[in-house]
Design goal:
Structural class: mainly beta
Number of helices: 0
Largest sheet: 5 strands, mixed, barrel
Number of strands: 8
Helix content: under 10%
Shape: globular
CATH class: Mainly Beta
CATH superfamily: Nucleic acid-binding proteins
Distance between the termini: 19 Å
Strand content: over 45%
Strand order of the largest sheet: 1-2-3-8-7
Radius of gyration: 12 Å
Length: 93
C-alpha cells in the first residue's frame, strides 16, 4: 500500500468514477465513507467529513496499491471494470 498512481479523475457512461492514466484506466476502491456527488459532467469526491478531496478532471496522486480481485464487502461492485487500485492517501498533482 505504498505505491503511487498519478491520474485524472473521470466518470464513465455508467456513472462510475475511475482514474485515467496514460493509456490505462483504474477502478478506484475508496476508503469507507467516501462518496461521489454530481453527474457525468461535473462531480466531486467527498471524504467521510464531507470535505472535497477530488473533482472531475482533477489530477491526483493516489497512494495505495493494486488488488487482484474485488472483495464482496466493497461497495460499487458494478464499477469494477478495470484494474483495481485501493486508495490509501490522496494528494494533488
Amino acid at each position: 500500500m505504498e505505491a503511487l498512481l498519478r491520474a485524472t479523475l473521470e466518470i464513465d457512461e455508467d456513472g462510475c468514477v475511475y482514474a485515467k492514466t496514460v493509456g490505462d484506466r483504474a477502478t478506484l476502491v475508496w476508503p469507507r465513507g467516501y462518496t461521489v456527488e454530481g453527474d457525468s459532467k461535473s462531480f466531486e469526491v467527498l471524504d467521510p467529513g464531507k470535505n472535497v478531496v477530488g473533482r472531475s478532471g482533477s489530477s491526483l496522486s493516489l497512494g495505495g496499491g493494486g488488488a487482484d480481485s474485488f472483495k464482496d464487502t466493497w461497495t460499487q461492485r458494478d464499477c469494477a471494470k478495470h484494474r483495481l487500485w485501493i486508495v490509501g492517501a490522496l494528494g494533488t498533482g
